[in-house]
Known about the structure:
The structure holds two protein chains of two kinds. Chain A is α/β, with parallel strands linked by helices. Chain A has helices at about 15-25, 55-65, 80-90, 115-120, 180-185, 200-205, 210-220, 235-240, 255-265, 275-285, 290-305, 310-320, and strands at about 1-5, 30-35, 70, 95-100, 125-130, 140, 160-165, 195-200, 225, 245-250, 270. The longest helix of chain A is centred in the last third of the chain and has 19 residues, at about 290-305. Chain B has three domains: about 1-105, Sandwich (Immunoglobulin-like), CATH 2.60.40; about 110-260, 3-Layer(aba) Sandwich (Rossmann fold); about 265-350, no CATH class. The relative contact order of chain B is 0.10.
Amino acid sequence: MILLISETPVAGTVARLAKWLGHFFGKPCHPIIMRNYPNNSFRIPMGAFSSLPAWPDVLKDLVERAELIVIHNIYAKSQANNLIYDVVFNCAPPTAKILFQVHSPPLEAPGGLYRPLNDYPFHGSLVIAQGYGRFLPDAVSVPNVVPDATYPFAIRKDRTILLPHMRSTEFRWSGKVTEADHNRLEESTPFSNGYAVTNIHEIFGREAVTHDEVMLRLAATSIVVDDINTGLMHQTTIEGLKTGCYVLSGADMYTIEQMCETLKMDVPPVELVSGINDVIYHLSDPQLDKRVHEMREKATAFSEKYLAEERLARIYYEQLKTAL
Amino acid sequence: MLIYDEHIQICLEVASHFRLRGCAFDPRTRAFPEPLAITNANGKVVTITPKRLFSDPGMQASGGLFADEELSFDLQLFDLFNEKPQDVKITWKNEHEIWSLLESLKSDVSQIGKSPKIEIGRRQLIVLSERGDPLRACVDRLHEWQPNMMVKPYTSGISMAFMDMETLREHEDEILTHAESIVLLTHEQTYPLVMREEPWLASSAALVLVGETLKTDGWLGGFANVLSSFVGPVADAPLSPHLLYMLLSHLVGYTELFFDTHSHADLYLYQSGDVFSGVDEFVREQVQEKMTHDIVVMSKDRLVDLRQAKGGDICIVVNQRKLSCLMDIFGKDPYTFLKEAYQRGLKPQNIVI
Lengths: 324, 353
């Protein structure tokens, strides 16, 4: 049996991975997700595990039968989290492998100093192949398994530029698109060839939305601006490519190398930029429509070749096996 | 510190086991008193070559010497003797001993008890520890063992402060407005407290997490990696008074590297690669236009994937300000250098020529 344990749904990743790992390993794989986000924005397949009155006993029973346990992004030193770690490291069979998957950058919440990796004897660690390898050079790089989306109706793209990142901080790794960047982009709208800037809050009236909601809106969007400051890449770029958008991203050389090597693919067809000035330069180019058309076609072809959910999941499975 | 001898006058601005900086003057010839030399306890003699150095106005006033003449010297004793010397003597004409560091330290012992535990200055080295923190035990032991660690003239002019969180809060304004600070702290006890209660420190000072994480905290910008490369194998050892002493002594021993990095001019240092035609002119133009990138990767084609740096026709230059984060990997091949720079959170800038 395989267990994937997390505090939150980690944007739906844990449940999705459980489905695919169960399929490829040919063994039961259960996502143990302790709680949902405040607005229950992701569906948890078996419900919130911590709602069980005697959840530590149930967890102990599962852990004792597990061959592989992957803990996803549990950092905070709460009583419940300490209990999870105690149960996992004291009750797992000696032959079981215990891994940690990092989903957050260091030195800011919730990752901090990746203390669990210092505190517990994990057999290995996994990092998402979107530039996160730089934080743990010894970790095994795995793809972000982003689901496919197909619709039984035709969707026409409008002239919008979507900025999906709502939260931005002054920290090194989460200043993806700053408030100043938003303002600069708004100011430059008159010169953006008729494309208008919008964001998640404007579209949905809230800031936390599910992957399915984003994908449907992206299918009707022409241009997406991912992280333009930190050098990392985020799920937005992959979602944008899969929905045939013209994606602008500030991914650096390290990120591109890690992604291409792990996913065994060519450099993704995104417009690589180095800050808001670059973004405005591209959006105000009189040839923008031609560029959007050309890049959208490339994005669709690229996604079909490299970014199908099953392909990503298979690579995840193969990479995971190298960590065992 | 002024030394008056029968024949010469010496003004020492910094005198420690790590560094000797000052100027010397022969009143009869109004020139540098050659041959002036320094000797370590093993008898190795190094002749002092005078240079024209800009010195603190205070030093010039007190010494009455001429800073624009070639009268000054600034010696890194680690480099000269390949060790931390137990004693250093200044000799003239190979026989006449003018000054001894050991004697000088002994005569200054009376001052040590009076020196404050917390000294705030423009260049600040803070050791932050709480009660029960293993770092606190090391600090206490260090004070017993090496009390003159605290005395500014023996720390290359760096102000040392050994404090807890409460004292840090009291001195917040002074540190924020005046000091360029390096803070040593442990990842177990003090780091979480700083991030939760005093996040201003993380953005205004260079944090060095000591102890077991010392060799892996490249996330903090590579500063600790460079320090580890100097300190050597002890970096892998658990936190001890000796390790703390080594860290502090290297930080004050190489002040030009670790301090004043923001005030360095944008001088670019060649790292690797073929310098193809136009590069030198380009760099000069860019620097004149106040280019302030940390690392500039010049290439004929746009670099998108790091693998292009393997054997590609590129030239890398590094802003001198970032030497304190990259010195230990300087000179490595372009791919390894850039990969490590990314792992330290730096942002290389690609410019197509």
